[in-house]
């Protein structure tokens, strides 16, 4: 980039490189900077002498002369989710010992991932270089549960350590370089799972960086450059095709180009194709992401305190999920599956050449759309992207988009809405989300709501009733999907952004990776 508005250039970000090792060792003999124990509320039950009944806590506390029991009582540590206490100690191989609460029980990947994130905060505060994690109660876990728990904890640690400091004048790198996971087994299968956690986490971090990037830096052209870097880095499995406006015009993408028309930054239609390094291809999938690098609303400009125009850099969160998944899969290299990663990247701006309310645009499948709201632009770009995806000969398509405020109103800030007419595809993606810990909720595709999308002069309008707005948007997208192709739409406008941390979440990456891997042989 030779020039950006404001002369802002991101510095190289530090991504945590953590070496994870699975060990079966005596926790009292482990040597390092900090040993952290994950405890449920039941693990803290005492006997009549106020001693821990849990075997690991009892063993640690006897070495520490009762200090752990004393401190947890004084600090009112009860094992509730997110509670933590850390002690500087002598008498153990570790310089510090910490307790982190897991609540009444911890059984899901989401629980263990959150535990890993709290652990990362404790390790940062202690300026630890090497650390260890143990669960106070892991005996009841099956071998499969131990694998999934270790994977989720490792993912949480990496993501908890990550800080996006590319746009700060000063930053400090975390000291942590190695983490031992104790008591969840050992061996090549677990080592592979921990390595896999690193691949997926790198994709999530990449997704976060894309969404966090300001629109004066991450233009459609720069997003295309970032996608091309994935293809060049993993060239043995990826190829990239970047179409300019003229090439899109040849493909009759009038719906997408109508949105892009007002911006001084030209559109870039991005297509990454993943082919396995060897063996037959059993299934072809497409992942389509909404790629509005900034959305002003167009002539229906976003106004008022609830419009969040200052956050409209996250309107390319769907594309970040798609490319984050591509980066992870480039490292994993699954066999038996071909995957297409497709983004129609552009900005929705205002100018004398821009799309007006009342204009009629024609999509690449020939359907005409009366634009009754220029701020319902994402679906216009996705229309041509979905047609293009179906033309790649794929059997299944999943699109992700920060599409409607209505979905955030319905499901809140942590749950994405899922729309699909296909129960089999829904089952596949929901199973993937159970592994990733990302929250999805299936919504109805109420066909009667299409009535509000009908136009008096064109095939349809791009916006319908405010009531059921997320459903109307999904019904619109359905018009551009081949009937032979299984299709799902994920409206991720709620979980794309963490308002408390004022930062992107990387939502969608982990679920997409799991979904693709379920199709690999």
Globular, elongated, flat, extended or rod-shaped: what is the shape?
elongated
Strand arrangement in the largest pleated sheet? 7-8-10-9-13-17-14-15
Name the CATH superfamily assignment of the largest domain: Zn peptidases
CATH topology of the largest domain: Aminopeptidase
The main pleated sheet reads as: 8 strands, mixed
Q: Provide the β-strand percentage band.
A: 15-25%
CATH architecture of the largest domain: 3-Layer(aba) Sandwich
Structural class: alpha/beta
In the predicted model, the low-confidence regions spanning at least 5 consecutive residues are none
- The level 1 CATH classification of the largest domain is Alpha Beta
GO biological process, one term: proteolysis
GO molecular function: manganese ion binding; metalloaminopeptidase activity
GO cellular component, one term: cytoplasm
Pfam families: Peptidase_M17, Peptidase_M17_N
Structural account:
The protein is 34% helix and 21% strand. The chain has 521 residues and is of the alpha/beta class. It has two domains: 165 residues, Leucine Aminopeptidase, subunit E, domain 1, CATH 3.40.220.10; 318 residues, Aminopeptidase (3-Layer(aba) Sandwich). The strands form four sheets. The chain has an eight-stranded mixed β-sheet with strand order 7-8-10-9-13-17-14-15, with helices on both faces. Strand 9, helix 9 and strand 10 form a beta-alpha-beta unit. Helix 8 runs antiparallel to helix 10. The two termini are 41 Å apart.
Keywords:
single chain; 521 residues; alpha/beta; Aminopeptidase; eight-stranded mixed sheet
């Amino acid at each position: 980039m030779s020039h950006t508005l404001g002369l802002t250039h991101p510095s190289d970000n530090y991504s945590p490189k953590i070496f994870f090792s699975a060990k079966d060792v005596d926790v009292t003999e482990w040597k390092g900077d900090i040993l952290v124990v994950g405890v449920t509320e039941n693990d803290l039950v005492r006997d009549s002498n106020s001693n821990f009944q849990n075997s690991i806590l009892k063993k640690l506390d006897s070495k520490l002369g009762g200090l752990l029991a004393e401190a947890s009582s004084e600090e009112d540590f009860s094992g509730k989710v997110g509670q933590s206490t850390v002690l500087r100690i002598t008498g153990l191989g570790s310089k510090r010992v910490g307790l982190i609460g897991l609540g009444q029980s911890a059984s899901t990947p989401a629980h263990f991932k959150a535990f890993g994130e709290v652990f990362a905060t404790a390790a940062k505060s202690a300026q630890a270089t090497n650390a260890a994690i143990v669960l106070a109660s892991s005996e009841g876990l099956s071998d499969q549960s131990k694998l999934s728990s270790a994977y989720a904890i490792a993912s949480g640690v990496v993501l908890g350590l990550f800080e996006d400091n590319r746009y700060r004048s000063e930053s400090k790198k975390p000291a942590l370089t190695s983490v031992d996971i104790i008591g969840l087994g050992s061996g090549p299968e677990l080592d592979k799972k921990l390595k896999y956690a690193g691949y997926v986490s790198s994709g999530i971090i990449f997704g976060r960086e894309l969404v966090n990037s300001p629109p004066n830096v991450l233009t459609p052209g720069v997003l295309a450059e970032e996608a091309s870097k994935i293809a060049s880095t993993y060239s043995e499995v990826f190829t990239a095709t970047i179409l300019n406006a003229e090439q899109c015009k040849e493909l009759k993408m009038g719906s997408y180009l109508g949105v892009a028309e007002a911006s001084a930054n030209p559109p870039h239609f991005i297509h990454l194709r993943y082919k396995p390094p060897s063996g037959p291809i059993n299934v072809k999938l497409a992942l389509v992401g909404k790629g509005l690098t900034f959305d002003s609303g167009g002539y229906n400009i976003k106004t008022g305190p609830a419009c969040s125009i200052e956050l409209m850099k996250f309107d390319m969160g769907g594309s970040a999920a798609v490319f984050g998944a591509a980066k992870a899969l480039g490292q994993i290299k699954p066999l038996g599956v071909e995957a297409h990663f497709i983004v129609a990247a552009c900005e929705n701006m205002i100018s004398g050449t821009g799309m007006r309310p009342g204009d009629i645009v024609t999509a690449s499948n020939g359907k005409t759309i009366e634009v009754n709201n220029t701020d319902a632009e994402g679906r216009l770009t996705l229309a041509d992207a979905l047609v293009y995806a179906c033309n790649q000969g794929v059997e299944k398509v999943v699109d992700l988009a920060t599409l409607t405020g209505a979905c955030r109103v319905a499901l809140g800030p942590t749950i994405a809405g899922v729309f699909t007419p296909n129960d089999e595809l829904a089952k596949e993606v929901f199973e993937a989300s159970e592994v990733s810990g990302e929250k999805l909720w299936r919504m109805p595709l109420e066909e009667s709501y299409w009535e509000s999308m009908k136009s008096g002069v064109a095939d349809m309008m791009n916006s319908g009733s405010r009531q059921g707005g997320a459903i109307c948007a999904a019904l619109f997208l359905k018009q551009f999907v081949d009937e032979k192709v299984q299709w799902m739409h994920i409206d991720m406008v709620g979980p794309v952004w963490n308002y408390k941390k004022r930062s992107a979440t990387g939502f969608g990456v982990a679920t997409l990776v799991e979904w693709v891997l379920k199709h690999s042989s």
